[in-house]
Amino acid sequence: MKTSKQTLVAAVVLSSALALSGNAATAAATHKAAAPPQVMYKDIVRPNGQKRSDAVYQADVNACYQQTGGSVYLPDSAAMKKCMLGDGFQFVWQRGFGSGSGAAVASSSGSSDYDYTPPPDTSASDAISWANQQAANQALQQAADDDALQVEEMNESNAAVAAQNALAEDMTNQYMMNEVNSR
Predict the structure, then answer these.
(1) Is the dihedral of CA 58, 64, 66, 69 positive or negative?
(2) pTM of the predicted model, to two decimals?
(3) Gap between the Cα atoms of 66 and 18, Å rounded
């Protein structure tokens, strides 16, 4: 079984090789044609006035998708938007769903503290960056899964050792009681 670090290194090497290969432009063009729809949420928590990390955002997105049964390939539902709002991220816009018009759908919240500007079209370098980010995210998820499995295995091992220790202690106590009673 690969360690988490080995999995992460393999993913980074693979994505770097793709970006540096002669087929990078082809990969980017292929990605652009099959790019997933885009959704934007605004961080409304902003601890100490700073935007929270992308890792925090992605963890909340993944948790909300799992909770609501959503997908990056489907428009975010009201339940998804409510879940994200509960995590401190307000829906702003989404695009790339439906007929391929590319039009962005803005939030109906009318928030006056946010100037709505749809994102620019995805370029080839953005496509490579997206592919690299996806590979890194998958590697991180695999590393987290591997770590969780290792923790589970350690917990099971610790439970087995604890049971053996308890049995040994019971046997020792029983032996000592027999020795005391036989005198």
Answers:
(1) negative
(2) 0.40
(3) 30
What is the number of other CB atoms lying within 10 angstroms of the CB of residue 124?
A: 15
Q: Rounded distance, CA 51 to CA 69, Å?
A: 27
Q: What is the 3-state secondary structure (H, E, C) of the chain?
A: CCCHHHHHHHHHHHHHHHHHCCCHHHHHHHHHHCCCCEEEEEECCCHHHCCCCHHHHHHHHHHHHHHHCCCCCCCCCHHHHHHHHHCCEEEEEEECCCCCCCCEEECCCCCCCCCCCCCCCCCHHHHHHHHHHHHHHHHHHHHHHHHHHHHHHHHHHHHHHHHHHHHHHHHHHHHHHHHHHHC
pLDDT averaged per 10 residues in sequence order, the chain, 183 residues: 53 49 46 69 87 92 93 89 94 77 48 44 62 76 80 84 87 88 82
Give the domain ranges of the chain: 4-174
Tokens 């975010």 belong to residue: 76
